[in-house]
Amino acid sequence: MSWLSRHTVVVPIDFSEDSFAALQTARELADEPGYLHVIHVLPDLEPNEPGIIWSTIDDESRTRHATAALKKELVQRDCDDGMHVVIRFGNPGHEIARYAKQVNAGLVVLSSHGRTGLEHLLIGSVAERVVHLVHCPVLVLKK
Amino acid sequence: MPMSRRFRPTTFCLALLLFGLLVTSLWAAVKHQQPPEGNAAGSAKEIWTLKEIEVEKSELTGWEQEVDGFFGKYLVTPLKVVLFYDFGTSRWLNRHAEPVVDCPTCKAKFENVKPWPVDPVSEVASCLKCAAEGKQTQIQIVRGTSVPLVVLWLLAGAIFFTLRMRFINFRGFWHGIRLTKGDYDKPEETGEVSHFQALASALSATIGLGNIAGVAIAVINGGPGAVFWMIVAGLLGMTSKFAECTLSQMYRKVAPDGTVSGGPMHYLHEGLKEKRIFGLSLGPLGVVLGVGFAIMCMGGSFGGGCAFQVSQSLGPIRAKLTFLQDAPWLYGLVLAVMVGLVIIGGIRRIAATAEKIVPLMCIIYVLMAVWILLANFSHIGSAFALIFTEAFRWESVYGGFLGVLVIGIKRAAFSNEAGIGSAAIAHAAAKTEEPVREGIVASLGPFIDTVVICTMTGLVVVITGVYDKGNPEFADVPGYTQMIDTEKGAALTSLAVGTAGDVFPWILCLAVFLFAYSTMISWSYYGERCWSHLFGTRVSLIYKLLFLVFVVLGSVVTASNIKDFSDFMILSMAFPNILGVALMSGKIRHALDDYWRRYKAGEMERK
């Protein structure tokens, strides 16, 4: 994996076991944890969500909560060793691709949920969209 | 990954339910096509249809009429048969009633039974035979009293919860007010908003045209006595609301970013998973009920949360802005754009202002009602007496005692949504670690909605006598009887408040518009949550576009059709919800007893 050395590896995390499994794979691939970027994409909230109506939640508070939750998971899995934790807002596929571009990533590692049929049609696949949109190689881990 | 991915119970149940719905509506549509048995029945039905056409023709033209016809035939009628099945109570209750009426002039006979279980109201039709001879004869056709299953269900649920929770609706009342005031608020607790904010958000969805138009419709169809049963249903409904909102808090999901989602679709799904009866897990039932609820809630958001609001608010507004008389669709279009700006355009400030203004608007509305009541001070006593005596009159002209009771419960449930489960979605967002606490706050909802606001509207309608078709005071108002026949409730309320001064219909216009708008904004959130529960957030644009279609439809389709459609969708949400909540009522009771013990022992920290 010499070509990967000194390249940034982006790992999207959606708090599923599969995504943390992908993180383990990415840790084996990356030279050191400093090159690992863990990204969690939060959906935009509806303008009629109670917390938005009463302005009791905003992007800042959500980022704070999500970062803390993600860090806690990483500590629990014993892999909080200096990797970057990033929170973004919007469509997961687009945001992951945009972030990969921004940090000039060498690889994106993610897992595929394997949705088929109606669920695939309606929910779709983040992995698919990332593969379409991102500028760098993508490693999709099958279940 | 877990088994659920491979099995996909959600998709499976969804497909099953959609299929079931399709088959039943087809069956109902086919059944409706068949002519009723016997010639006499056929002729009665013919007259009924004729009368409907006569009333509707006068206001709808061209494409609007076609849309209305389609809506009535393919949406309302099949739904009516399936969801409001009354188990033959209409036949049983009316077995002593005279089955045949004669035309007073030509003595032609008409069978006196309607093909579908409908609201028990008497109706006037014109005799076809006389009309052919150039004479106008009116025949009084009394529709049978029927007790639709959903009404029994709502009432039984509310009584059961009230007894099971040992009248928490009364004993928790003051505690509820203290909680709402914020005496027990802790900012560091999990959740999005305070108790007051959660209640206000839930009320912005609950308080709508149901409180203004719905009450007038109840009095038109059930007489003054219906107001009494609405209040009773409101008081009992407080416990239904308590139970569902406590559960909603227990099973809410807290996302990593601190946002909360909950509601019947979550607690039916998660809660019943834990429940076992005779060693059998209720998990599969929970999945079916959760998915069923989500589908009906989306329907409810299109009906009562949207089209009904547009349809009824149009009445008083069009009476003041006369250019809307010829182009009601313009109103629907303007509202669709305004709602679209928020739900698709994502403009937060409009949504926030619309919802925050609701409590203020409620106060203004109640003050206006009190003013009108004071202006008619000498009649208040007799109005109350009328409401009480009519509520218990066995042989009431409005379909008897049971008829009045049914209408009161139905309209109360439509207005305060107790047992329906919708408000549980909003109350899940409250900041608290004590589910029971939010349940007690939520139980104030039906009190404010029904016992305070609906009663005000009811008193105004009764005291001004506007519900009585034969009232000479309103005889010269253009389209007055038609207003009553087509159930234009809000227009009637506008007429009632207008008796006290010209400024009041304008205030009512403002109130009606704001209530309608905020209700639509809030209900679109409920519907969107349900849609996301089924299909994920990505495609919620489809839901939002459908919602806007119903905004426009609300301004075009006739008020009765919209009311019927809304009733079916909203009230049927009670089937999965009350069943699930009743099954889990032991858990709620346990949590309540524990909370109440700690509260009484003074273990609760108070500011």
Kindly describe this structure.
The complex is a heterodimer of chains A (143) and B (607). In chain A, α1 links the parallel β1 and β2. Chain A is of the alpha/beta class and 143 residues long. The longest helix of chain A is centred in the middle third of the chain and has 18 residues. Chain A has six helices and five strands. With 607 residues, chain B is mainly α. In chain B, strands 1-2 form a two-stranded antiparallel ribbon. In chain B, strands 3-4 form a two-stranded antiparallel ribbon. In chain B, strands 5-6 form a two-stranded antiparallel ribbon. The longest helix of chain B is centred in the middle third of the chain and has 38 residues. Classes of the chains: A alpha/beta (143), B mainly alpha (607).
Let me know the largest β-sheet of chain B: 2 strands, antiparallel
Instruction: Work out the helix count of chain A.
Output: 6
Number of strands of chain B: 8
Net shape of chain A: globular
How would you summarize what this structure contains?
By secondary structure, chain A is of the alpha/beta class. Chain A has 6 helices and 5 strands; from the N terminus they run βαβααβαβααβ. Chain A has a 5-stranded parallel beta sheet with strand order 3-2-1-4-5, sandwiched between helices.
List the main descriptive attributes of the protein structure presented here:
heterodimer, A: 143 residues, alpha/beta, 5-stranded parallel sheet, 20% strand, B: 607 residues, mainly alpha, two-stranded antiparallel sheet, 29 helices, 8 strands, 4% strand, disordered N terminus
Blueprint (SSEs and pairs):
The complex is a heterodimer of chains A (143) and B (607).
Chain A: E1 8-12, H1 17-29, E2 36-42, H2 50-53, H3 59-76, E3 84-89, H4 92-102, E4 105-111, H5 117-122, H6 126-133, E5 138-141
Parallel strand pairs in A: 1-2, 1-4, 2-3, 4-5
Helix pairs in contact in A: 4-6
Chain B: H1 3-7, H2 9-33, H3 39-57, H4 62-83, H5 89-93, E1 100-102, E2 109-111, E3 122-126, H6 128-132, E4 138-142, H7 149-164, H8 168-171, H9 173-181, H10 195-206, H11 209-222, H12 225-250, E5 253-254, E6 260-261, H13 264-274, E7 276-277, E8 280-281, H14 283-320, H15 328-343, H16 348-356, H17 358-375, H18 380-391, H19 400-416, H20 423-427, H21 435-442, H22 444-464, H23 480-485, H24 489-498, H25 503-535, H26 540-556, H27 559-572, H28 574-583, H29 585-600
Antiparallel strand pairs in B: 1-2, 3-4, 5-6, 7-8
